[in-house]
Amino acid sequence: MKEKGTDHPATAARRRWRAALAPVGTLLIFATALWVMNRLLADYHYSDIQRAVTSIRPSLLAASLAATVAGYLALVGYDYVAFRIIGKPLPLSTMLVPSFVSFAVSNSAPASVVTAGGVRYRLYAERGLTTLEAAAVAGINVVTYALGLCALAGLVLLVRPIAPGSVSSWLTLSAHSLGVILLVAVAAYFAAILAKRESITMLGHRMPLPTTRLALAQLGVSVADWILSSGALYVLLASFDGVDFLGFLVRFLVGQFAALLAPIPGGLGVFEAVVLYFTSTGAPAPRVLAALVVYRVIYYLLPLVVAGLLLLVRAARRAAREGRGRGAWVLDVVSSAAPHVMSFVTFVAGALLLLTGTIPANARRLLWLGRILPLPLIEVSHFLSSVLGAVLLIVAWGLESRVRAAYRIARGLFAFGIVLTLLRSFDVRLAEGLGFAFVVLVVASRAFPASDHESLLRDTLSPGWVFAIGAALIVTLSVGAFAYHGVYYSNELWWRFTLNDGDAPRSLRAVVGASIAVLLFVFARYLARRAPPPLGEAPEQ
Fold first, then answer.
1. In 401-462, which residue ranges form alpha helices assigned H by DSSP?
2. In whole angstroms, what is the distance from residue 282 CA to residue 275 CA?
3. How far apart are CA 527 and CA 150, in angstroms?
4. The pLDDT of residue 438
5. How far apart are CA 58 and CA 380, in angstroms?
6. How far apart, in whole angstroms, are the C-alpha atoms of residue 334 and residue 72?
């Protein structure tokens, strides 16, 4: 008789295969999105995007930042309304930081509902929030989120199709029909409330229904959120002729809906591909992509950084309340946060080494370097720096897992990377960044205990890390393909070594070298996990 809680071997095997293939499917979606963007940008050069990014005026950046701040205040309104629906109202002043942090994290994380719910519970637990109440708040926020999306998208699709005058009549009719369906869904929600129903069933869970007043507050908060979040991007495009807000808004909403369906953190790549695909002819594609990149930084990355700082302040205040000295809480925070911070820094460093090894180097610096160094040394340094970047992506995962071997490897790689960066293109700014990361890594040595016995080859690699490492390689390949799409491929490219016309061959060799490094790691893990465990260790289940 099978024990309770155990699975049939075939069922367990299927579950393992699904877990292993899930990040592969996510990477395929991500790669498809980048392929679409490459096709849409086929008539442009990567320097066009560089110029577009630098041409965005500071006033537009300030306006986008202001819309972002207002948008996150609207997001706090989600929790403000939800807590009242579950009968646990809190003052708005006490909700600003916890709600902001939970939304800042969830906006950039996969499974955003689950992530936000977990973060929210930990931040509100001291206010008496239970796990069931946290789950109810998360569910209500989903309804609020969808309510505004359906209402706003329904109205916009009725007033303005996706691309007026450039699509067939059946697509326009479909857009209008979808708008009607969305508005009917909103009307049905309010009809259930007016019918004095106390709760509804969603995905097998009972969810309380709000009063009419709170339902209207849900609608208002969600619509404000969508308008402000889209406004943060629209102001970056507003200087282009032919971009009106309604036409832009429908593209934004379609892009966000596609991003919700894609199992990718923040819909990265998918949202950009959809918005770029439906861009009107009034805005050149490089300008739109530049605005999307800046929007990612302002609306997603900056709030995430601010949320991290707020968590540090929160930890300091808690330590002060508990009577611990400043040195004690600083040591606790550094010990707990150092692996995550260094993992992030190491991953970014690896990605930068890959990307800078793919795009053309600064011609002046390269020619100057060629006068004092032999060409073979420059070529070898370029190749090894990209391989080192790929290894850093893997080591970043080991740092988050507190693997002592990963810490030792990272220290050596950062030091070696500084030298290679200077030898391949004399990129002083990148070398300075690597040097700063090296110093921080040395200072944080106490966060990686010497007694750690885990191995980079045997420890479990989570699906999130599989996606992150694979996505970094796909981005590198995509950027290289875009930067050199006008270069005719031939076998001679592999063996072309020159400063003046050698960017494409160097990029090609660098991408292949980085890919081989990752494949060798995968193969080594396969062999290590099939080998019998060392004496004294239990075999893996």
1. 404-425, 428-443
2. 14
3. 51
4. 85
5. 40
6. 28
Higher pLDDT, 335 or 227: 227
Rounded-to-integer distance, Cα 385 and Cα 421, Å: 7
User: What does the pLDDT look like over 348-367, one tens digit per residue?
Assistant: 899 999 888 888 877 788 88
- pTM for the full predicted model: 0.80
Q: Which two tokens stand for residue 364?
A: 């002046």
Question: 200 has which bridge partners?
Answer: 207
Cα torsion 472, 236, 99, 207 to 10°: value is -90
Whether residue 454 is predicted with pLDDT greater than 70 in this model: the reply is no
Phi, psi of 197 (to 5 degrees): -75, 140
Q: Which whole-number Å values give the CA distances from 106 to 115, 304, 325, in the listed order?
A: 6, 9, 32
Residue 255 has pLDDT above 80, yes or no: yes
Please provide the DSSP assignment of 307-339 as one string: HHHHHHHHHHHHHHHTT--HHHHHHHHHHHHHH
The residue assigned the tokens 């897992």 is 401
Residues 6+ apart with CB under 8 A from 189: 143, 147, 215
Q: Helix or strand or coil: residue 87?
A: coil
The rounded distance, in Å, linking the Cα atoms of 150 and 450 is 54
